[in-house]
Amino acid sequence: xxxxxxxxxxxxxxxxxxxxxxxxxxxxxxxxxxxxxxxxxxxxxxxxxxxxxxxxxxxxxxxxxxxxxxxxxxxxxxxxxxxxxxxxxxxxxxxxxxxxxxxxxxxxxxxxxxxxxxxxxxxxxxxxxxxxxxxxxxxxxxxxxxxxxxxxxxxxxxxxxxxxxxxxxxxxxxxxxxxxxxxxxxxxxxxxxxxxxxxxxxxxxxxxxxxxxxxxxxxxxxxxxxxxxxxxxxxxxxxxxxxxxxxxxxxxxxxxxxxxxxxxxxxxxxxxxxxxxxxxxxxxxxxxxxxxxxxxxxxxxxxxxxxxxxxxxxxxxxxxxxxxxxxxxxxxxxxxxxxxxxxxxxxxxxxxxxxxxxxxxxxxxxxxxxxxxxxxxxxxxxxxxxxxxxxxxxxxxxxxxxxxxxxxxxxxxxxxxxxxxxxxxxxxxxxxxxxxxxxxxxxxxxxxxxxxxxxxxxxxxxxxxxxxxxxxxxxxxxxxxxxxxxxxxxxxxxxxxxxxxxxxxxxxxxxxxxxxxxxxxxxxxxxxxxxxxxxxxxxxxxxxxxxxxx
Length: 550
Prior knowledge:
Blueprint: H1 46-81, H2 85-113, H3 115-134, H4 139-167, H5 170-201, H6 206-209, H7 211-225, H8 240-263, H9 268-290, H10 304-334, H11 339-345, H12 347-367, H13 370-387, H14 400-422, H15 430-470, H16 475-482, H17 485-488, H18 501-537, H19 544-547
């Protein structure tokens, strides 16, 4: 069987009966725009477009909100459920792992069985598992429902992009993606503040109950106004061997990255699952080259823009999550702000991101993805460079301008890289492309926290003894403090029982200086990564399927 040209939209067979809804075979155009109405009998209204956009925006807002709102509730959850630190980490990591490993499968299910159908199932599953989280009586039950939440999110998120790709014509797609990105950023921005208010005035369970009304409205709008679309060619099953190899490989690789914080990069607990995961991913590639109906069609990567777009999503979210994680530690543990106060001070980043995404859509529509990606990556590099100048006593006035630049840069990068990925895949594989984009997002986030975390710990470990010596900390106390670089790497000061206030003040000063050195080292790594990404952005071209005659 020959391999179809994956950059040319698939034309439906003339043997159709005319009684079923038309499949998504290309972008709507003024001449054929009636394909967007439910039975193809009327001209599509802007109202339908807006309500379709509302449905997918609410869906992705639920997932983004849950990515940030839980952090604020963690101390209360630990106290109420008696969670250990490891158990509390799995409340977040279980969700992220399940989401990361199932995104491409979720997109494939949408391509095969219908994007609207799988999206609605994902929304319903996310809302119901959120209720399960709220009713959890133990940490283990909560982690189990968080895993199910992640799997539901993996069905939901990639199909939001596929629905937009099938609904909006090329002239409007980038603006729609900009609104999609802005909604996601707005949810992430409001998470710490909304979560803090709910935990303080209601309960930690209420942060999960919040998803129920959002899910109800999203599902209603989708069932009422979103047109069902699916791939027009189905040559086989769901490629279960491919699903197993990809999910297993991603699971082990992400697991190994998460474990680096506890064991270090050279530990067998990290290397063994990491290597096995990479082997499974290699076997997945071999499998996909021979599969009649592959889970991830490898010819997609013949598009240079799509391949580079995936790399830029990883590097962009590497930057975003790395900065959010360590600047959050800086604000809370060095400046001693509460979680809500930290969320408020991060608003210049997240709010500008929410507005920067629609701007990124307009610029990408006007200039193509290359220049917004280049500009955005240079902004990220500038942010990293500026943050190398932060000191323990830096006033907020020296911080927020960099948050604004980062938010604007991420708005450009998110939309332009999404266009490079989803816009360079045919509608036939829109769900898979959406899954690929969001998988790259999750991997970038994991890399941002783990790689930069390792850089911080290494810098703290090498600089802490000298800082303690310079602060005049006695040898025995200094040895006890130096044995805890992980604590200092969070911006905290190890507690040494029986130590005088004067010596503890010196320990605090040395620990803070070592943490700031680690933070600066991480930011320099970010500068290098984003500058390389800016060069890669020059390889991006305008939408390649448009050059093939669409």
